[in-house]
Design a protein that fits this description.
three-stranded mixed β-sheet; 7% strand; mainly alpha
Length: 576
């Protein structure tokens, strides 16, 4: 599947500049007659190209992992050489100076609509196919609707008010008449749910090729979309959460039911770190419900590597020269991993004092998520991190921590040098731990099954306690003090919700979920502005930062799209 994805991208390069030019060059045309268009091999190529777009269309500055946009959260600093290095992302991290004309506002919009257009191109032919000549017709339609929904989901989390390209038979002129506020916020989420529901109803429990989503993946994404939909933002003049919908939460419970996950082998990895290892034996493991498939041993001159993390690699002299050192863990995040003498986190006052590796207890996941000065980079003892320019291109402006989940051993066989640094390591889009935490959150918000929610949290904490294969000698060699224990009391709804939210942060840290969670909960302005104030001493760039509620929760609609929409698009609120 990995090789086919890249070959398909070479066979069918579809060019689009956004939803307003959605079908330019997209529809099957030229000299092909109907018999050729409806040839199963031709249709297969269109389907494979739709998958390939998720790898070939993303970019180091517009990664579909969304790491570039997670710098808005309290998990990460932008990093790099300073504030002018990637200045448009600096604007995002301080919530100031964000312009509708900034290239990073329009670039992600354009790229995501390109991958949606590939799915629609395949769908336009698939719906005309006869099942007698193409028996997998309904399954392939389900796969393409899954990919289309994935694209719309990412767009909606970023921009909120988006046009929905859900009619694959529309003409270019009709696409140009789409409106981005035709549907309410709630209705928009439902459109995405409808595509995932079709996928759920028509996908098999197990796919022959790991890159294709199965029924469990559709269930997981249904649950995730319902969870976002549950936190209603019904006031068109506000981004605040107006209510939390019970029926949507019940659907989260429904689609995270273990009976929907276990047939395809979904389970927690025995070691947390296994989810972030490039070795083939660890990829597509039990916790990986659906992942982007990267590779380099496929005859494509490393073209199918994951180059979208190319800016994250640190600049190690003579080893990763040219590494740009972006996306650096924040001090606030590191402090969140501290634990007390009972092995439990400091839920309310974790940031009162910065973590001290020599004296404080910590959740072991800290050292599998964040590269800490005084310990080996990517567990290679030839590279001990310290507080020098090697580990901070900004000479300390953005601190000396390094993210580990996206990087690989600099001396191993899985780091590839091209125009940037790449790796064949898969990127998990839907991780079983995420689905478990969504279930726990819904249980608590419904104020039912709180013991089950705490049990889910404890399953992750117990897994973390045994996830020391790569760091088993850290206590002896580097003075680290690990301590993590499960919760063993009874908890009110408010207490349980605080526990689940904290566990979600440390389990999914640096996986680009944090900012979107804060917006979904309606907590972004309070949390981020407190973060700015607390971090000002650690990272001086936040001295003038300010998060404006009812504006900075979402990116503005790109100026280029507004201009080309013939008045059909409206700008997001916030006086951009």
């Amino acid at each position: 599947m990995k090789k086919l994805l890249y070959l398909a991208a070479m066979m069918l390069t579809l060019i689009s500049t956004g939803c307003n030019d959605f079908l330019d060059g997209q529809k099957p045309q030229g000299t092909l007659d109907d018999d050729q268009v409806l040839n199963p091999q031709y249709v297969d190529n269109l389907v494979i190209s739709a998958y390939a777009g998720w790898i070939s269309i993303e970019d180091i500055n517009s990664s579909f992992s969304m790491w570039n946009y997670d710098v808005r959260s309290d998990d990460a600093y932008k990093g790099g050489n300073g504030t002018e290095d990637g200045d448009v992302f600096h604007a995002l991290e301080i919530s100031q100076g964000i312009m509708t004309t900034n290239w990073n506002i329009s670039d992600m919009w354009n790229r995501l609509y390109q991958v949606i257009s590939r799915a629609n191109t395949a769908l336009a032919v698939l719906v005309e196919m006869d099942k007698s000549t193409y028996p997998v017709r309904d399954q392939r339609i389900a796969e393409m609707r899954f990919l289309r929904a994935h694209g719309h989901f990412l767009l909606k989390r970023l921009y909120k008010n988006i046009p929905f390209a859900i009619d694959e038979k529309m003409s270019p002129a009709e696409y140009n008449n789409l409106e981005n506020t035709l549907y309410t916020n709630n209705e928009g989420w439902q459109i995405i749910i409808d595509d995932f529901k079709y996928a759920f109803d028509n996908l098999p429990e197990i796919q022959d090729e790991v890159g294709r989503p199965n029924r469990a993946a559709a269930a997981a994404y249904l649950a995730k979309t319902y969870l976002y939909k549950a936190y209603r933002q019904d006031n068109a003049k506000s981004n605040q959460v107006t209510s939390i919908d019970r029926e949507d939460l019940l659907n989260v419970i429904k689609y995270t039911d273990p009976s929907l996950m276990t047939p395809s082998g979904c389970a927690l990895e025995p070691d947390f770190h296994n989810n972030f290892r490039p070795e083939p034996v660890f990829e597509n493991g039990p916790e990986s419900i659906w992942a982007m498939q990267y590779s380099f041993n496929d005859g494509t001159n490393h073209g199918n590597c994951n180059w979208s993390y190319g800016l994250i690699v640190p600049n190690i002299p003579g080893v990763t020269d040219g590494g740009c050192d972006f996306y650096k863990p924040s001090q606030n995040l590191v402090n969140a991993f501290k634990t007390d003498e009972n092995g439990l986190p400091f839920l309310d006052n974790y940031n009162d004092k910065d973590y001290d590796m020599s004296s404080d207890y910590a959740d072991p996941r800290l050292f599998l998520t964040v590269g800490m000065p005084g310990t080996p980079y990517m567990f290679n003892k030839d590279f001990i991190m310290d507080k020098t320019a090697t580990w901070s291109r900004s000479n300390g402006l953005y601190g000396y921590y390094v993210t580990l989940k996206q990087n690989v051993d600099p001396e191993g066989e899985f780091l590839v040098k091209g125009g940037w640094w790449g790796s064949p390591m898969n990127r998990i889009v839907l991780r079983y731990a995420d689905i478990l935490l969504m279930r726990a959150e819904a249980l608590v918000q419904l104020n039912q099954g709180i013991p089950e929610a705490i049990e889910i949290v404890n399953s992750l904490r117990n897994r973390a306690a045994q996830s020391t294969g790569m760091i088993s000698d850290y206590e002896q060699l580097y003075g680290v003090r690990f301590k993590i224990r499960p919760y063993n009391g009874s908890y009110t709804q408010a207490e349980a919700l605080k526990i689940v939210k904290h566990e979600r942060r440390v389990e999914l840290a640096m996986e680009s979920e944090r900012f979107f969670d804060l917006v979904r909960w309606g907590e972004a302005d309070q949390v981020i502005n407190k973060y700015y104030a607390d971090e000002a001493d650690n990272c001086a760039i936040y001295a003038t930062a300010n998060f404006t509620p009812n504006k900075n929760e979402y990116l503005p609609i790109p100026f280029s799209q507004l201009s080309a929409s013939n008045g059909h698009y409206k700008q997001n609120i916030g006086n951009w």
